Amino acid sequence: MTDLTKLTAVEIAGLVAGGQTSAVEVTQAHLDRIAAVDGRVNAFLHVDADGALAAARAVDERRAAGEELGPLAGVPVAVKDVLTTKGVPTTVGSKILQGWRPPYDATIVQRLRAAGTVMLGKTNMDEFAMGSSTEYSAYGPTRNPWDTDRIPGGSGGGSAAALAAYEAPLAIGSDTGGSIRQPGAVTGTVGAKPTYGGTSRYGLVAFSSSLDTPGPCARTVLDAALLHAAIGGHDPRDSTSIPQPVPDVVAAARLGATGDLTGVKLGVVTEFSGEGAEPGVAAAFRDSVDALAKLGAEIVEVSCPHFKYALPAYYLIAPSECSSNLARFDGVRFGLREGDDGNRSLEEVMSLTRDAGFGPEVKRRIMLGTYALSSGYYDAYYGQAQKVRTLITRDFTAAFERVDALISPTTPFVAFPIGARTSDPYQMYLADLYTIPTNLYGGPGISVPCGLSDGLPVGLQVMAPTMADDRMYRVAAALESAVGTFTPPAL
Ligand code: GLN
After folding, report:
1. How many Cα atoms within 13 Å fall on the side-chain side of residue 437?
2. pLDDT of residue 238
3. Which of 137, 179, 320, 447 is labelled catalytic?
4. Among 57, 337, 343, 487, which has the minimal tally of Cβ within 10 Å of its Cβ?
5. Which tens digits make up the pLDDT trace of 181-227?
6. Which pLDDT score is estimated for 331?
7. What per-residue confidence (pLDDT) applies to 335?
8. How far apart are the first and last CA of the chain?
9. 412-421 pLDDT, tens per residue?
10. 9 with 73: CB under 8 angstroms?
11. How far is the CA of 13 from the centre of ligand 1 (A)?
12. DSSP bridge pairs for 337
């Protein structure tokens, strides 16, 4: 019998629609797989078996009634614990929200339900999406299915690991500085950060509101495109949502899969090519550039001189926005409340709650951001960082006058051992060196597996102009058609 957990979303949806299997069977197979392996992976913070089986039954009933099912009906999906889910625990990987069951679904979650996907549960993440390894989760690290002594990337390591461990064929992530693409790269899966404003932030617990972008994670480019199409598009409940339809990313992925990139001009970012990357990553990237050229793409080098300032600018802008966003966790409105014995002042209870509820990295960000926004330092830090953001945007604009899309490795290094970078925040921050410029600009970026280095996956990043998400899917699918997909050793 086919192992239903090894199939793509497209294959699962086809079998369900054709009646060769049922959504309940598919869901049960994934729940069994989670029960068998998640003790070693820790991808899930919460598994909603009852909710999943009920959703699956509803799909089977709709099919039995002769209803036309959508392209992802009956396909299980794992949702990063940064999105609110009605009645289902939402912790953002933090102790401060332990026990919170939101009264509403995020728009993305609503759209997942409307598409007939089956939500298996909520995935582990670095606390408040701050981190690159999922080691900053208050609920223990997630482990990389390729090597369980290594990190699965972060902050969305749970979503990426769930895919690589065959616990789910689809997952949702959120990308503020790389949290979809970087875990994708180090787990050998596909992760796409849509254009900022192309996917709704309604119900996404805010980290850095001008950067946060929810998006799709999958094992193939076409699956990611189908998920992107299902969750994307305008949402009147998000003030920065773009009132335009998502470009046809599914058609673009299918076009790319034909393996023809004739007429497509790709720019290798000079500042990110090789230099600074591990030799194995640089080598896999160079081979992929050759593969893209063989598919007909014209390859040129493009210098983006301000990209080297992206990391410092991000670590002023993101903490500044976080210090303001996280002020709402005060022990009164949500989750944890510490020290409220009837004798303490409101300020004391707030302070005790925040001290007990937030982990060290979140506290570091709040302090950095509060400092950067303080009067007297505002212009020197936050103001300067915003100017750098403009310069980076200009680099992108100039580049896209010359090329259709930019490419680089997704990360400078492969999955590192658990514990290797936790003692030095800067070493952790470097994991997002190549992904952050895209967030500052607001354009789309995708990571697609491109090779192995010492048996560990390497990702290639494709960056496109804002609202040209389709372009990156075409290039990523073409590369996938040339290099194939990568399967981790059995768990
Ligand atoms: N690793 C980066 C950070 O720690 C990006 C996180 C993200 O994209 N959510 O801020």
Report:
1. 29
2. 98
3. 179
4. 343
5. 999 999 999 999 999 999 999 999 999 999 999 999 999 999 999 99
6. 87
7. 85
8. 20
9. 999 999 999 9
10. no
11. 32
12. none
Cite the beta strand spans of 93-169 per DSSP E. 118-123
Q: Are 133 and 421 in contact (CB under 8 A)?
A: yes
pLDDT at 273: 83
Q: Which residue has the tokens 């992108």?
A: 396
Angle of helix 221-231 versus helix 249-257 axis, rounded to 10: 170
3-state helix, strand, coil in the chain (%, to 5): 45, 15, 40
Six-digit token string for 13: 């949806």
φ, ψ of residue 292 in degrees (nearest 5): -65, -40
Query: What separation in Å is there between the alpha carbon of 458 and the centre of ligand 1?
Result: 19
The predicted structure's pLDDT at residue 490: 94
To the query of whether residue 174 is one of the catalytic residues in this protein, the response is no
Report d(CA 113, CA 28) in Å as an integer: 18
How deeply is 154 buried, as exposed, middle or buried, from its count of CB atoms within 10 A (0-12, 13-18, 19+)?
buried
Asked if CATH classification 3.90.1300.10 holds for the domain at 4-304+398-483, the reply, yes or no, is: yes
- Of 452, 455, 462, 454, the C-alpha closest to 484 is 452
What torsion do the CA atoms of 70, 72, 73, 75 make, to the nearest 10 degrees? Answer: 180
Catalytic residue among 22, 94, 132, 155: 155
Residues of the chain with pLDDT under 70: 1, 274-275
Contacts of 17 (CB under 8 A, 6+ apart): 63, 69, 73, 74
Token pair in block for residue 366: 């709040």
Report how far residue 182's alpha carbon sits from residue 451's, in angstroms, rounded to the nearest whole number. 15
Q: Please check whether residue 355 is in contact with residue 347, taking contact to mean a CB–CB distance below 8 angstroms.
A: no
Q: Do the beta carbons of residue 338 and residue 353 sit within 8 Å?
A: yes
Angle (CA) 18 22 24, round 5° = 160
CB 420: neighbour CB atoms within 10 A?
Answer: 16
Helix (H, G, I), strand (E, B) or coil at 289: helix
Question: Which of 367, 362, 341, 364 minimizes the C-alpha distance to 352?
Answer: 341
252 sits in which H/E element: helix 249-257
> 31: burial class by Cβ within 10 Å (0-12, 13-18, 19+)?
buried
Query: What span, in angstroms and rounded, lies between the C-alpha atoms of 128 and 86?
Result: 19
Residue from 291, 219, 295 nearest 255 by CA: 295
Judge whether 155 counts as a catalytic residue.
yes
Distance 89 CA to ligand 1 centre (A): 22
Output the ligand 1 site: residues, CB below 6 A: 129-132, 155, 175-179, 207, 318, 432
Q: Is 80 a catalytic residue?
A: yes
pLDDT digits (tens, 9 = 90+) for 461-475: 999 999 999 999 999
Say how far apart CA 426 and CA 384 lie, in whole Å.
20
Strand pairing class (265-269; 298-302)? parallel
